[in-house]
Amino acid sequence: MTAEAAQDDVLVSVEGVVKYFPIKQGIVFKKEVARVHAVDGVDLKVRRGETLGIVGESGCGKSTLARCVTGLYPVTAGRITYDGEDITGFSRSRMKAFRRDVQMIFQDPYGSLNPRRRVGSIIGDPFAIHNIADGADRKKRVQELMELVGLNPEHYNRFPAEFSGGQRQRIGVARALALKPKLIVCDEPVSALDVSIQAQVINLLKDLQDELGLTYVFIAHDLSVVRHVSDRIAVMYLGKVAELADAPALYEQPRHPYSAALLSAASIADPDEAERAERIILIGDVPSPIDPPSGCRFHPRCPKAQERCVAEEPALVVRDGDAADHLTACHFPVEPGDDLTRAHAGISQESTAPALPEATT
């Protein structure tokens, strides 16, 4: 593939994106005293028609990154390009037009729907906001969307409370599809659903992608779900991408120690294989995003950490022996045969937590 063709294949490009949230103190005159480094220099490309999975622990910045991509959060620094246009400097009117092409499915099917409004009104909101259809035409379009996602069009006038959790998430999917978007960001869309319902919603999203030519950014913490739906997977840790690879390559041979630890914690359906599997236990807690560690942010918990990891931040690049699209941010990536289950962090760290008072008798 030529460079021009590869560039045309990219729908969204995230370049050096930073998102900090200020922490302020004071009653009358509030002063910024620190910042939460939610996303801190992320580079990603989302290709047309693919599903890019983003995984990581809670607080790693994956949902914040998704909200930056959709324009819900302004970026602190960096650039986000959609279909060749830099959206970070869009005016309000241009952002409204951009949001017709980019929609979001939220995690909570209960909290994302207004309980006081009927389903037909909720799904029809995009048509009203963008002045596309009204009256009988809007009702017809809403009922077509309901049928498309597996809901009964006759339930147009019901309230969200009259639907199950899986049906409510289908309502959210229908609302996201209303304006025929090119990109849909799925922010943990099945984590609040029962396992049997999760499969139905995932299969629905896959069928819609094949039928409508959609592009997905799929955020989840369930590694088995991400493996099933994703073409490529980005692993995030403390605001940065630790590893980015095709899904089969990442699951067969993770190169970043954090990716290996995540995969070792994934559930395994085969009981015999699950009994043989050994889990990589990481020491310590995730460092505070207010004051992240120097160098590699994973080094305080990494079983392969060395002095270089403390002083030098690793670049997200192709490591020796990996495919051209397998990127790893690690000075000492995991090699075949490495046993991390019995290793301990190589760099000692002093706790930054406040000392507890000594017990008295």
TrEMBL record:
CDD domains from the UniProt entry: ABC_NikE_OppD_transporters
ABC transporter domain mapped to chain residues: 12-263
Keyword Nucleotide-binding among record annotations: yes
Keywords: ATP-binding, Nucleotide-binding, Transport
A GO term for molecular function: ATP binding
BP GO annotations: peptide transport; transmembrane transport
InterPro entries, A to Z: AAA+_ATPase, ABC_transp_ATP-bind, ABC_transporter-like_ATP-bd, ABC_transporter-like_CS, Oligopep_ABC_C, P-loop_NTPase
Record-stated family: Belongs to the ABC transporter superfamily.
Name of the protein this chain belongs to: Vitamin B12 import ATP-binding protein BtuD
Organism: Actinomadura macrotermitis
Encoding gene, per UniProt annotation: btuD_25
